[in-house]
Structure formats: structure tokens, C-alpha cells
Amino acid sequence: MENLFCPMCRLRQPTEHAYCVSCGATLPSHLVAGGPEKVARFFAGIKVGTGDPENGYLRVSCYRKEHRIESQEGSVQMTGNHVRVSMWVENEARCVMSLPESEAREMADFVLEQISATHPRSELPQLG
Ligand SMILES: [Zn+2]
After folding, report:
1. The whole model's pTM is what?
2. Which of 19, 37, 63, 99 could be disulfide-bonded to 67 (CB atoms 3.0-4.6 Å)?
3. What separation, in Å, do the N-terminal and C-terminal C-alpha atoms of the chain show?
4. pLDDT of 103
5. How many domains does the chain have?
6. Buried b or exposed e, range 98-108, using 16+ CB within 10 angstroms
7. How far apart are CA 84 and CA 98, in angstroms?
8. Reduced to 3 states, what is the DSSP secondary structure of residue 89?
9. In this structure, are residues 95 and 87 in contact, taking their beta carbons and an 8 Å threshold?
10. What are the residues whose beta carbon lies below 5 Å from ligand 1 (ion)?
């Protein structure tokens, strides 16, 4: 079962929701249609430079099993065991890239190590 997370406040909620029950933001529920072959989460971005977008967010999808995506344009076979990362602004994907699970694990370990070294989880500022 997939989970839908609000890109603004990160509240988890049912995929049937169109708007966040907490903050009212439009939920990207159209992105999570599909089966249990993958799990997707959204991570809210912050603007730190003048060229950075407002309301940008990162979508991270873990594809656990091979599966097929059908659409009006045709069908695509998605290989399993990879992590697909896409950068979104509003309802548009600006770029997308997939990592093998080994690289995704390295990335996760790297970020966790670096952040934990300077800021324990309890000290990190909360969004929203
Ligand atoms: Zn929200």
C-alpha cells in the first residue's frame, strides 16, 4: 500500500485525498497511482538561492519489483530494485534520475552520517 505525504507539511494521508487535511496544500495524489511494486515519498525543498524554485519538492520512489506502467501514450516496463528521484515544482517534474539500490544506500548513509555528525535529529529545525 502506498502512502501519500503532503509536500508542504509532510503529513501522511490517504491517497484518495486531493488536499492536505492539515495545511490545505494540493496533494500530488495523481503521482501515486499504482500497485505495491513501489513506495513513494515526497520531501519539501527550501529556497536557499535566487535561482531556486518556490514550492519545490523531491519525490523519491523505491521500486521493489519489476512492473508495467500503462498510459495513453503506451506502456513502460519499470525494472525493480532501483530508486527513482525526481525534482518537482508545482505539478511539473523538472528532472528525473534512477539509482541502483547500492548507490541509493550509499547516498542515504552519506546524508545521515553528515547530518548526524553536526546535528542530532532532535536539534534539526522542523519545517512548517
Ligand atoms: Zn499539508
Report:
1. 0.59
2. 37
3. 27
4. 95
5. 1
6. eeeeeebeeee
7. 4
8. strand
9. yes
10. 6, 8-9, 11, 20, 22-23, 25
Is 126 contained in some domain? no
Return the C-alpha cell found at 22.
492539515
From ligand 1's centre to the CA of 4, what distance in Å?
11
Q: How far is CA 96 from CA 23, 85, 87, in A?
A: 27, 6, 7
43 phi/psi in degrees, rounded to 5 = -130, 125
95-110 pLDDT, tens digit per residue, is: 999 999 999 999 999 9
Contact indicator for 26, 35 with CB cutoff of 8 Å: no
Grid coordinates of 2:
502506498
Query: What spacing in Å lies between the alpha carbon of 82 and ligand 1's midpoint?
Result: 28
Do the domain assignments include residue 13?
A: yes
Q: Does 31 fall in a domain? A: yes
pLDDT at residue 1, rounded to an integer = 46
